[in-house]
Amino acid sequence: MTGNDWINGYLEAILDVDVGINEKDSSLLLRERGRFSPAQYFVEEVITGFNETDLHRSWARAAAIRNSEERNMRLENMCWRIWTLARKKKQIEIEEMQRKAKKTLDRETARREATAEMPDDILEGEKMDTVGELSPRGGTVRGRMPRVSSTDVMTNLVSPRSDKKLYLVLISLHGLIRGENMELGRDSDTGGQVKYVVELARALGSMPGVYRVDLLTRQIMSPDVDWTYGEPTEMLNPLSSPDHMNEIGESGGAYIIRIPFGPKDKYLSKEVLWPHIPEFVDGALSHILQMSKVLGKQIGSDQPLWPVAVHGHYADAGNSAALLSGALNVPMIFTGHSLGRDKLEQLLKQGRQSRDEINSTYKIMRRIEAEEITLDASDVIITSTKQEIEEQWRLYDGFDPVLERKLRARMKSNVSCYGRFMPRMVVIPPGMEFRNVEPCDGDLDGETEGNKDSPATPDPPMWAEIMRFFTNPRKPMILALARPDPKKNLITLVKAFGECRALRDLANLTLIMGNRDVIDSMSSTNSSVLLSILKLIDKYDLYGQVAYPKHHKQSDVPDIYRLAAKTKGVFINPAFIEPFGLTLIEAGARGLPIVATENGGPVDIHLALDNGLLVDPHDQQSIAEALLKLVADKQLWSKCRESGLKNIHLFSWPEHCKNYLLRVTGCKQRQPRWQTNDGVEEDSDDDSPGSSLRDIKDLSLSLKMSLDGEKSEVGNLILEGQDDTPVDKRDKIRSSPLKFSPSESPEKSENPRFPALSSRKYVYVVALDSDSVADVLTVAKAVMEAGKSCKDSQFIGFVLSTSWSMSEINSSLEAAGLKSSHFDAFICNSGSEIYYPCPPISERNNNNNVQYMVDSDYQAHIDYRWGGESLRNSLIRWASSVNEKAKGNDEQPVITELDSGSSHCNEFWIRDHTLVPPLRELRRMMRIHALRCYPVYCKNGERINVIPVLASRAQALRYLHVRWGMELLNVVVFLGECGDSDYEGLHGGVHRTVVLKGGKCLEARNKIHVNRNYPLEHVVPMESPGRVDCETCDADGIGAALGKLGIVRP
């Protein structure tokens, strides 16, 4: 750790041990290892960079032992402990260096390929800066976001949509969230993010044009927390005037909405919430749909008031927001707060845990994948600082600042991006509520602002608690407010203060280092830092010049800032790196000049406020000089104070919300097509398919693949076929001709089948995965037979959800003894298409032999960021490279492109999955190329379906809920023990699940799930009251399982 004063004593002890290292009476531990010099190793490896903070306690205990033999033995063991830890750390560092080198090479290759596909016809535009900045003086600066007046912003916001009311949905899942008396610091999940999202919702709810803001979080009924966290709804007290509140309806304003998900009686940490996210998404979706209808009626519209955006906070809420935005087809906004890859790097640098150990503790790989998903789905990502973009987000596969700049310039110039996309990164610093903040004038001699005849207010108790430490409390106060954490660099600050005599003569130092009772009860890291600070105070004899109170309340913090301002002091944040620096804004609002680290968010804050100095946190002398300069130069102090107070409004909530709404309303609105007026007359009755069922011309859907021994030319590549493909395999994929509906959408009176989805008492979804469509249909038939034995069987509907194409299903229906009319819907090609069976001819006015109707509204729904031909070309190149690498083993190609018959599914046949890279590598490569898609390993590892990023079988069910009103609570999903790589999405949610035992699950698990980024149990709720196992796949076994779920048999 930085400033280990115990190192000298430790080194002396090791030197004592080193003297007799080769003698016969030396310990067996050392004799077995041969000649080894602990002192030399310590100097070379430990002092030069290895930093293990908890060794101090071990050394202190060992040094206190009087028995020299036992003492030496303990110190020898510590030497070997250091050696083991250092070796482990070195190994981790080498692995990470190799990983980073590969990632850099892949990114450069992807950038070259993307650039080659996109002509350089707008080079000047591509030189624009990546992110905008706030200008403290309001001028337009190249590469910076110009200061825009409040009037201009709101004019741009309201004018194009003067009759438009905005409905915003914010999501923050973990921690304890309530509007008043927030328990900040109660645990690691209830911190600054909780305060931020509550204040953001409250501030947005008070903005003109915003009708309602919902902050969605988890409902917690645990006896371990206050009862208020179990209340379904909590209204946030508005910040605006009563006049604005009169403009909104009875449901307007800002609310906390608590959605029940996960165990109802347990308060869960964020690391164990992942398996329950689908349940939250389903509950949130139902709330939003219901609220949209209510708000639409309140504003006098015949359409629901759809959310203008869904905004996720942190990775878990970001994953949820991605699913919700896909189901609702609305823009998504994301704020990371902290990022998983950055945390993973920091933990690996410590060298205490391997990647697997970190993942086991923090579920870090699941979190990182969630953050990659937010990059896939987000329209805008809001950051607090440029540092977050340039040093944290660039660690992700899905974001490359260079490629993002090129793509944004092309979009701005209305030039094709060839299917590539990256979200817009914008810097909008967090806001503060300044209504009750008054800059402190006067000094401690009694000069106060206001009427001299008014009685003086008593000093806050916290002032006396601090000033009791000082010999001369009227000297300017240097204030630091941070945890005693090595990253906060407080030890260097104390050294800088202690070694600068001029600074000690002019100022006092106040360290607010959290709350403590007994040092020994603190964590080893925090106590080690605090002990080092106390020793430095003793070393430099700083008694009477440094204050370090043991306790303070959150409500005392404003008083502490006021005290520092009254003494004409300075606030300092010397952290090695500071992601944002909210305390710098709080200090600036009270008129305190600042000295801050030059690494991270303080750079942006200083640029906006211009109220202090930036320093290198590693340079002790630089810190001392900056503090001395501000304390000694009163003119500079006054100038910094005035500049900070002048520009602090840039960090106010109104300013934050204006910039926020400008970005949100600038997103392209893509509401569901059936709710938009696109020139096509829609059926006025909500129960009718209306324009949802379009014509796709008569298709034979014969698969253009080379399993017949021919060569299929695709682009510039030729992928050879398989001469030795078994006959039965070819038969399975041959398609019989299909006929689809004509362009005229059937009226409700002519087609009574489609409203049935909303009126079904239960909907059975057969989502069993297999390499044989016949096996899937056999199970579907057994499920139907079990359904017939249930009460109200006539009100039970059936949906087939599979990775097979409609053509492949159709060719096997008759052989399985089933008809298309037995099903309400078919979810095909891993969720990239939805088909509905047409009514019998007797129920139609014409005699056309139409079998199926495709839901083209669903295709428009999932078309978001679909790469089309550019994506297909990249996939072909990938397949070609895999085939090329595998040529040494076999001349036959490993991967062959198939014709899925779908415009939103690229399908590939896998001859040998052991020769194909893991699916995560394909997804990673597509993300690096800025191509957003969702690859699915299916059919027992024999196929790969690449579909749109917002499509999946689970999302298709949510679409049916949104489009047709199919109640998800009434859905029963039938799954196998294992399945396709999208299996996890079907497992969670509010629906009930029947797991069918047996089959080829072990084989599928080995082929498909062995190379996951994270274990399946990290995302699948293994124990749920809505899940039952079925030991047999016949009608009797399935019926018994349905009985356990409460679907009572007669």
Strand order of the largest sheet: 3-4-2-1-5-6-7-8
Mean pLDDT: 79
Binned, the helix content reads 25-40%
CATH topology of the largest domain: Rossmann fold
- The best one-word shape is globular
Beta-strand level of the residues, as a percent range? Answer: 5-15%
Biased composition (Low complexity): 735-744
EC number: 2.4.1.14
Domain Sucrose phosphatase-like: 782-986
Keywords: Glycosyltransferase, Transferase
Any overview of this molecule?
- This protein is α/β, with parallel strands linked by helices.
- Helix content is 39%, strand content 13%.
- The chain has 36 helices and 28 strands.
- Helix 6 (150-158) runs parallel beside helix 25.
- Mean pLDDT is 79; it is low at 1-7, 17-36, 47-54, 123-162, 447-452, 677-737 and 740-753.
Topology:
Layout lengths: L6 H13 L8 H4 L6 H9 L8 H9 L4 H50 L32 H9 L7 E6 L20 H13 L5 E9 L14 E3 L6 H6 L5 E7 L17 H22 L10 E5 H15 L3 E4 L4 H11 L4 H8 L1 H14 L2 E4 L2 H7 L8 H12 L11 E4 L33 H7 L9 E5 L8 H10 L1 H6 L1 E5 L11 H16 L6 E2 L9 H10 L3 E4 L8 H8 L4 E4 L4 H8 L2 E4 L4 H13 L1 H14 L5 H13 L45 E4 L2 E4 L6 H7 L22 H4 L2 E5 L6 H16 L7 E6 L4 H8 L11 E4 L4 E5 L14 E3 L1 H6 L6 H18 L9 E4 L7 E5 L8 H10 L4 E6 L4 E6 L4 H12 L6 E6 L6 H5 L4 E5 L4 H9 L17 E4 L4 H10 L6
Parallel strand pairs: 1-2, 1-5, 2-4, 5-6, 6-7, 7-8, 9-10, 9-12, 10-11, 12-13, 13-14, 17-18, 17-26, 18-19, 26-27, 27-28
Antiparallel strand pairs: 3-4, 15-16, 19-20, 20-21, 22-23, 23-25, 24-25
Catalytic activity: beta-D-fructose 6-phosphate + UDP-alpha-D-glucose = sucrose 6(F)-phosphate + UDP + H(+)
Enzyme class: transferase
InterPro entries: Glyco_trans_1, HAD_sf, SPP-like_dom, SPS, SPS_C, SPS_pln, Sucrose_synth_GT-B1
